[in-house]
Amino acid sequence: MILKKINLYIFLAFLSLFSNYKIYCQYNYQKSNPIDLPLNLSGNFGEIRGTHFHAGIDIKTNGKEGYEIKSIDDGTLTRVSISLGSYGKAIYIKHYDGTTSVYAHLKKFSKKIEDIIKRFQYNNKTFVLNKFFKENHIIIKKNELIGYSGNTGGSSGPHLHFEIRDSKTQNVLNPHLFGYKLNDSKEPVIKRIFLYSLNKFERFENDKIKKNIPFKVISNSKVITDSINYIGKFGIGVETFDQHNLSYNRNGIYRIELLKNNEIIYNIKFDRFSFNDKKYINYFIDYKELKENNSKVVKLFSSENSNLSFLKKEQNGNITFKENVDYNLELNIYDFEGNKKNIIIPYKKNSNYLKQIKFYEKSNINIDEKKTYDFENKKVIFFKNSYLENQFVSIKNLNDTLVLVNKNYPLNKKIKVSFKIKNELSTNKNIGIGLVLDKSNKIKFLPSIIENNELYSYSDKLGSFFIAIDSDKPTIKPLNFKNGDWVSKKRYLKLEINDLTSGIKKYDGSINGKWILLEYDPKKKLLTYDLEDLKYDTHKLNLILNVEDLANNKSIYKAQIYRDIGVLENDLSTSTK
Q1: 3-class DSSP state for residue 332?
Q2: Which domains are seen in the chain, by residue range?
Q3: Digit-coded pLDDT (tens) for 487-518
């Protein structure tokens, strides 16, 4: 009987190992490079990007655009998106091993893909799009050219944003797991270490909830802090970054372990995560530190309201120090290549208790209820789940301005802000709600609606809200031609559009009555038209461009230009494919 039980345990253990092996090996880890350049990163997988975790790696392209981008494996084109922000021009390829690769911020697509997308754009008279394709409709081979590197969308400089996802769940996977290795022999760098009081009735000196822990560097791989000698419940926070040999960029960390008495009590490991984790990022970091000092301090303890997919719920990172008990604390911080920084945090037995305070829950916005603050001529509504936990928001009614401040956590859901307006303003199409964010004098013009003498809008940010009027029209400026020019030797028409107050809302262009595809780059304020898109049966081309801003101001530009009559194989304006 005992022998049978032992055999059963061995079988179950083997089954568990086989199951884990199968999960680990379900993907093809022999994928090719998406770009023929050394792997030099300006952004790492999982690093903190203000409002989200970075879902891929950013591969540097020597500050240039136009490098060939190739598919990393056989597959099928499932999606192409073009947006003014975010990923810009992006391609999604589903592979046969259950992964999907994503290539973003592209300058343009390969001819095979470009022809399909342009037909769709002309048929639907749109530049921006999010086009899905049936599986196996467009086959892509490994190492096939799919596009060219660029700087489109929310990119701040030329590079390739590259992702690998689980096709079924759309969870993002660390590309380094697929053999994309870095030239990296550098250990992670420690900037600051903090001790947080997790008891709301206790504070450090000067009534602070956290305390900086000084440290000294013992070697490239080891750091030791000053001794901790407090009694109570605490958490650790660390500000850290990583660099590799070919780059000066400060990138994110792959893995952090917090150990108490040689037992792991908190473990961060960026192998994969869910896009849903985005809403919890400001529980993962010290949000107040980010807002006030632009510092990314990772909190190595969990909030009960956080549900991050890459953390184990049983490891909450909470540390309780009791009187006259020895403790051994240490941090291990790793990059993906295995370079490690070890941080020893000595504990000195003592009876040093924190300052006791009277704590009053000041929350005025509760997650399970809608809350309205109605002043004489202005109003703000916080909907259910505006925050992920109860919060205190400072709300001030100052003359013509409504000031909302919360430095501890950002909004989880948009709020509604409204102003009562006089009859003479109710027909003003150039009116809207202005927003000035904290520590900024820049006005953000919120698209607004007027109903029954009430002007209202929705905002995912707090700040100073007021009524704004923009009566200035957008400007339109041709850059490489002028009215009356012959443009036979030109491939593209380029125009600059700009609006200094509210911003561009939409634009529309035509030549000889036919809609034309104008590609828009908001960073450069640039519209570009490819003269080879359409064919015309006359030398004379009548260009009309309409531009409207967020305050409904409109501008129109007209020009008559000339071009030799060419012969094109396809006129995209009449294509039905």
Answers
A1: strand
A2: 42-166 (2.70.70.10), 189-356 (no CATH), 371-469 (2.60.220.30), 475-574 (2.60.40.1220)
A3: 999 999 999 999 998 999 999 999 999 999 99
